[in-house]
Amino acid sequence: MPLSAERKTEYFTRMKELLTTYTKLFVVSVDNVGSSQLQSTRRGLRGKAEILMGKNTMMRKCIKEYVEENPGTSVEGLVDCCRGNVGFVFTNGDLGEIREVLESNVRPAPAKVGSLAPSQVIVPKGPTGCDPGQTAFFQTLQIATKITRGQIEMVNDTPLIAEGERVTASQAALLQKLGIEPFTYGLVLKSVYDNGSLFDAKVLDITDDVLAAKFSQALSMLASLSLALNIPTQASVPHSIANAFKAILSITIGLDNYSFDKADVYREYLADPSKFASAGGGGGGDAGPAEEAAPEEEEEEEADMGGGVDMFGGGDDGDGGY
Question: Three-state SS string across the chain, please?
């Protein structure tokens, strides 16, 4: 039933208000989403975002009128998004948070005859609960079965429906017999509009960690190229300074009459290699100081036994105290 002129006016006013109030929105597909599920999503977004549905022709006309009334606005790109069963989710909040709410509100649904499968359906092997008289039904679908304890049992996991394939009557009947609801339906993100930029929703999969890793990789590559070409850049300067210090240090270590504060530490290490062990290398941990303390105790014992002390504790006079 077509909307009355008053309802259309209210809808246009409402959509223009949303386009003015919010700077971000999701373009979502609502195929196979019922009214109760949509209301549940609205409750989850209350205070964070607003959902607007409508006919594509009305939405396109409203956006075009808004562009004419507001020259220079960047929402004109949304006209091409009004294709299929879509709606808008307006927000000024964090897009990632709104996305989590939208993707979490999904419900399982049975396979309907003639519908396109949003994902592949694989029926697991095992008992089906069907009596042996229905073996022909499984044979029609070319599913290997056997009779176990008075019921049909599937021998292997069976790919029943491919993604994007239309569900046939036999496939839907089998899934219904097995009590399997293979699909989940909810608001599917198609595009994202953010302050004049319109991009695919997959861009939101790029997290801060991914960006940091990509930046670090690019920075390392830039530093390597700069060093190879002998062209100093902000990325290569720290490496150039480190390489220069290594060159100066190697020359200084070879000199006997010159040194500087930073080189003295390395001279000391090279002069006494035992300090490398005391630094806790490998898995020794605190074993270094204990190992150093042990030889000192042995030296003290040898010092106490000096002079004419024999192995039985006797002194110079040969009296062992016995």
Answer: CCCCHHHHHHHHHHHHHHHHHCCEEEEEECCCCCHHHHHHHHHHCCCCEEEEECCHHHHHHHHHHHHHHCCCCCHHHHHHHCCCCEEEEEECCCHHHHHHHHHHCCEEECCCCCCECCCCEEECCEECCCCHHHHHHHHHCCCCEEEECCEEEECCCEEEECCCCECCHHHHHHHHHHCCCCEEECCEEEEEEECCEEEEHHHHHCCHHHHHHHHHHHHHHHHHHHHHHCCCCCCCHHHHHHHHHHHHHHHHHCCCCCCCHHHHHHHHHHHCCHHHHHCCCCCCCCHHHHHHHHHHHHHHHHHHCCCCCCCCCCCCCCCCCC
pTM of the model: 0.56
Q: Express as a percent the part of the chain with pLDDT over 70.
A: 84
pLDDT tens sequence across 252-277: 888 888 888 888 888 888 877 776 66
250 or 256, higher pLDDT: 250
* Amino acid 279: pLDDT: 54
